[in-house]
Amino acid sequence: MEDCEPPLFAFGIIADVQYADIDDGLNFKQTRKRYYRNSLKLLQKAIDSWNVENVKPNFILQLGDIVDGFNKKYDASQRALDTVLREFNHSPAVHHVWGNHEFYNFTRGALLSSVLNSKSNQQRSSDNDDFYAYHFSPAPNFRFVVLDAYDLSIIGREESSDKYQQSLKLLKDHNSNEDLNHPPVFSGLEQRFVKFNGGFSQDQLQWLDHVLSKADEMQEKVTVASHLPVHPLSTDPICLAWNYSEVLSLLQAHRSVICFIAGHDHDGGYHRDDSGIHHLTLEGVIETPPQSNAFGTVYVYEERMVLKGNGRMADRVLPYPRSLAEQCSI
Ligand SMILES: Nc1ncnc2c1ncn2[C@@H]1O[C@H](COP(=O)(O)OP(=O)(O)O)[C@@H](O)[C@H]1O
């Protein structure tokens, strides 16, 4: 893991903080404890740690579900959001990804006019209006793309919208349960057709294709971030994006793509696909015991990235697909 050369830059990663000022509880299946108040403390510790690192992260990727849906029930959504965002006042710049819990608390319109809209800080913010996706380049030859995994969804879309109707039809075609959060089957890939997941519209896939084609041309290295994972071997399939295979094919068709980072599955996961793309699903802070943590710093080098994980998050070396270092074995 030790590298003699200094990294080109570094960035922080953290997922599923799901803060709420309520007592500890359990997930729906009652298999995992959730530490709603303590998640804020773990976020504070992560930020403190990033702030004292030798190579301070240029930015933080926050993979979504920053506040828990329970806040809505207690009319505490804005208070909880203000509380977590206050912590980020002391951190490097943050790129916020949107997850299902953002939509349990806020409408899409409210999110667009909130601090969670990191896209509004980007120059190219106006090239797509109907989904929350954007890209940025923090250093020459490196690009990051933030995707909207709830572009097709029945949470966060107005019932009157085409996207809502299209999403409802897709869900109902695969899930005949009255409660659409209840999976249609108990194992396998079809489990993903639940209301708490979503997908990517054709417009967003076209936009992504265009961004990645340009990155290929420029010989950039691209990391893509989304709340929902897109590789079945990087997650419990119940957490996959509905049209994960379309995104996966697109990523694999572009040589610029090196890494896909997601949240949502609090157990985390990792898989390197046949094209050499690393699929990292981050362990969720909300299900992390108080004495541990779940965040990381990714150090970016010419030929690889190195993830230094904390607590439940493992260290990993992530060589670039087709890189010289990989051919020579790292
Ligand atoms: N098997 C299930 N049947 C019915 N509802 C479920 C099921 N699993 C989850 N849910 C509901 O779906 C929503 C999201 O589930 P949850 O486990 O809280 O997701 P997250 O990991 O995003 O917090 C919650 O409202 C939860 O009650």
TrEMBL record:
A Pfam family the protein falls into: Metallophos
Lineage of the species this protein comes from: Eukaryota, Metazoa, Chordata, Craniata, Vertebrata
Top-rank taxon: Eukaryota
Cofactors demanded by this protein: Mg(2+)
Record field: catalytic activity: CDP-choline + H2O = phosphocholine + CMP + 2 H(+); CDP-glycerol + H2O = sn-glycerol 3-phosphate + CMP + 2 H(+); ADP-D-ribose + H2O = D-ribose 5-phosphate + AMP + 2 H(+)
Name of the protein in its database record: Manganese-dependent ADP-ribose/CDP-alcohol diphosphatase
Entry EC number(s): 3.6.1.13, 3.6.1.16, 3.6.1.53
Source organism of this protein record: Coilia grayii (Gray's grenadier anchovy)
GO MF assignments: ADP-ribose diphosphatase activity; CDP-glycerol diphosphatase activity; metal ion binding
